[in-house]
Target: SRSO17 transposase
Amino acid sequence: MFVRIGRRFVRVESRRRAGRFVQGLLSGLARVNCWTIAEQVGDRTPDGMQNLLSRATWDADGVRDDLREVVVEHLGVEDAMLVIDETGDLKKGVESVGVQRQYTGTAGRIENSQMSVFLVYSTPAGHTFIDRELYLPESWAEDQARRDRAGVPAQTLFTTKSRLALAMIARALEAGVRVGWVTGDEAYGKDAAGLRDPLEAREQAYVLAVACDHRVPGPGEESVRADERAAALPKRAWQKLSAGAGAKGRRYYLWARLRLHPAGKTGYHWILMRRNRRTGETAFYRCYSPRRVALADLARVAGRRWTIEETFQTGKELTGLDEHQVRTWTSWYRWTTLVMFAHAFLAIAAAQARSTPSAEDLIPLTRNEIRHLYAQLILQPARKIIDILAWSAWRRRHQHRSRQSHYQQRHQQPAPDHELQLEY
Model:
């Protein structure tokens, strides 16, 4: 993979250092920063790694473009999906670019944090990041002194998160990435002008979550809340469908949809509803497609949104996505791009491992296990390789037994009484 991006570095020293930087990200360090990475790969000081992120001459956006091509080449299918979401990194100071007190889902409350928006390429084979944008709040965009200290480019203005997401989606589509659907959470589904309308103008199908108070046409001429409309649906309107496979088996919910006819718009529009079979909690989605699609297809797309949550989790746990200790605009983009590269390596390796049959009592190699083996066998060769491989087999066999136990318990559990009444 790394050969593909070599042309993005002006000096061979920077290219080699970037390769060692990615190795450090994959080495399983307890804390990941320029100091620990430099020590891990044999540098005597962190100066070289810090220079790579701040002053060395190389094209981070070019690396991003090459990375996107590699990901699509290895994971691509005709009906791939683009998933958008944001994440927040908690910060103590006020000098890191873009940091301010703002709501972040990472903490579930308003905290001093730095927000960024990511685009994930998701297919049945695997999923990983292919683009990223740092969110610059208005308080930063209008403060020239802070901009100068953090190296924010002069052409960078305040842009909403929906517009950042749209820019990344457009960049992927214009690069020739073929996708069937775009999906995201409520923060993006609620923005018609910033995201939904531009996607429809491109005839790009989407399934975007919206809040329970999203307005939809009622029985009469007036609009009503989505949850009120859902409560009025007859039991026969709901269908039991899978939202995809989870850690404990297929994820079944009750689904329903209503056709919408927005004035002046073409194509097919729906409000999609997903009801938890046990709690009755209902989620809502605004959907569009230039052609008619089945309810099961919409449910499948809505169920795929979780892949970005898993990507965030593995990106932070395995490759240090949220552990950067950088303050400037350039350093943030370079750190994040190299983290994306390391994560893509694990995602592609895991996809290739799943395509190879393994023993019946072993689960396929996971990204976590691949990173462990890569660190132990390649980056830090062990004295007894057979012992490391034996431990890998033991972990995977144990996980296989645990999964089978979960499947059996799920299969043996009787369906709730209210579910039996809803099924036809």
